[in-house]
Model the fold of this input.
Amino acid sequence: MSISPSTPPDPLVIEESETLALGSSGVRLKTLVYIRWLAVFGQALTVLIVHFVFAHPLPLIPIGLLIGASAILNILVTLNSKPAARIPDRGAILYLFYDILQLAGLLYFTGGLTNPFSVLFLVPVTISATNLPRQGTVFLGLVTFACITVLTVFFEPLPLPPESLVLSNTYLFALWSALVLGTAFLSGYAWLIATDSRKMYDALTIARAELAREQQLSAVGGIAAAAAHELGTPLNTILLISEELRHSLPAGSDAATDAELLHDQARKCAAVLAQLSRGPETGEFLKDSAHHNFLALNNLFSVIADKYRDQGKRFIIRTHGDEADIPHLYLNAELRHGLGNLISNAADFARSRVTIDLYWTDRLVRAEIRDDGPGFSEEILSRLGEPYMSSRLGKGGMGLGVFIAEMMIRRSGGELGFRNHPDGGAVAEIIWSRRTLEKSDPFSN
Done:
């Protein structure tokens, strides 16, 4: 069971979010430049301390060439790019690929895996896992694996004193295993966390855009209603005067014909203004501005359900509480859109009937939306609320329905849950604090 928005999101927003979901949007070049400068200064400082302070001679010429190459490359990149530029995925992968090779070259001249700084192999792969596509991370992981393996066998030993500890081949193999497993684990873990964060961000973008669109439409409807109200008085004056002119002018004269035409056009304008005042969605009962929609709880659900009665399903709304104490609330954009998604989804999967049960006390308000369809499968039920998760395979959509509905319900102060009914069918349950739900201002926090 999946939830589809009652009105489709903006296609441009969907297209942009799909692009984000399918791949990354690149890495900011400035970030990579800063990281490399830190590496350059750290490498240079470490080499100077080891060579001059601890008096352990190192091959300064090849080491200096490797560090200098990174510094020169960083300068060239900075001069030829804008500070806020973002490089494409392929460029970022090549950038990190060079960093791995440069680090491998330094470690070759400074003890291979016996150098404690060999742990820095984890950095480029982790950066790739959090920002770049999976294919790029796999490539960099394989390059790192190859470099670690080569450095296990081929390296220049550190110039340590003769009495220093000599590492056995077994220990070198243990270091190799730790780096390989650490690279695989950290990159995989970082990739999973980053992917989940990107999905959540993309889904939130669509949810916010949809809510903003709903509120914009409501504002436009309010302006139209206000314009209709302001134009009503002068239009009635025109109708009155044109009616008097029709009867006072000689029949058949040109002036009488013009007065008749004026009166007829004014009546058409009045009909258009009346339609604007009623609003396009729910006839005369529901206005576009939430401030006009102060409804009893059962009437609110009835108004929303009216939009989906043309699907051929029967809607039954039952109340369970003191009718004299039934909650009254504003039908704002969050409730209209969130509840509309839930009711629309129930109607899509119901065989013939959707039942809405409403309960209230002086502290809580609870609504249960139940269909008589097949219900949720166990694997879907455990994952409801995750963005980009849909049970409608092959039917299109992005699987954002439950996520969007849950976001809207939470903005209204409620909590949304799902379960299967013992007698069959799916149940969506919403629980609100009555005090929060009956707030005086529908747009207050």
